[in-house]
Fold:
Amino acid sequence: MASLDDLKKRIASVKSTQKITKAMKMVAAAKLRKAQESAEKGRPYSEKMNNIILNLSNGISDKENTSKLLSGTGDDKVHLCVVMTSDRGLCGGFNSNIIKKAKSYFSKISAEGKEFKIITVGSKGNDQLKRVYGKKIIENISFKESKNANYFDADKVGKMVIEKFEAGEFDICTIFYNQFKNVITQIPQAQQIVPLNNEEDENNSDESYEFEPDEDEILSNLLPKNISTQIFKAMLENSASEQGSRMSAMDNATRNAGEMVDKLTIEYNRSRQAAITKELIEIISGAESL
Amino acid sequence: MSEEFKVEIVNPEKSFLSKEDVTEVVVPAFEGEMGILKDHISIISFLKPGIITIHSKSGEEKFYVEDGIVEFKNNNLSILTSSIFNLNEVEKNKLQDLLKLAEEEASKSEVNDQTKYLVDQKIEVLKSLN
Structure:
């Protein structure tokens, strides 16, 4: 059995761990509020963008000759997967959930005999994927320096995707990220961004627009922007999810540490009592023998 | 009859500006400046670098934009842009920084004609502001 001194030391160390996890939880909670706010503020932009593109693509008569970003290359041999994860750990299942989702997608694709390439955004995803899929990773981007998700970073990723598309390096592009639902629930998402997945929402298509310059030119300018916008949206959702996930993970850790302290304290008290009782017995039996 | 309509400017981070009592908006559209009044026909267009002027009951406001898309529909004007600055609030250094950046870009050799045109526009506008 551990000595009294050892137990005392362990209790102290668990207590200080608890203090750290508690502090991390507080920090995550504060950051979560900010991240959630910016995720909500960013929504109008991506919604409006989507609306305009929907209206545009409805207005286009010649669907065959539109931008390849909208209609696709007509092939689906090479898939590009943009896996977006965080740069920091200690956030529960946040990164693993995205990786799991991505991995199941990879195995589905390779079972179909198609090729895939990976771009990782965020260092944690790269760490987890490079062991198995090291050769498939063509780019690895990390935004450790920037504090919050910002549009310029997203634009960088977007431009890279478009460059690769124009160079004919892939046919279909999917981004993986966690959608923020609430603090406890984040849903890993796979969203196809190239070619654009048009949900058939033909509600207000009879609205006629005047275009200046013509539709094609607007579309070919708008679609690359839309990719950056979608990536930015994913980044915002991701950062909110990361903080939410970290918060609940740290909450759990704090609770577990508390339980451990209780258990150790009971053990400590018991062994202290046992030592006292033993000493008493020794004294009494010593006195009796006189 | 009221001659007002609604304008909303959003950038990726947030809703930048929303105004209900706007009487006229002048935007630097791709093919030239374009004034929008109430009951304008539905239109979608791009912006090139330039100044957006918003006339409203409470006065006139000017913004500098580098790119964007405008959509006008049912007396709702939406402007989507990734870079916008209110000229009353922005500091002089910021504009000078932007000018420097644009000039750097212009000095690169491998730009195509369209980006060259846009960068030249940007420089011109920024110079007139500084």
Observations:
- Chain B is about 25% helix and 45% strand.
- The first strand of chain B starts at residue 5 and ends at 10.
- Chain B touches chain A through 23 residues (CB under 8 Å).
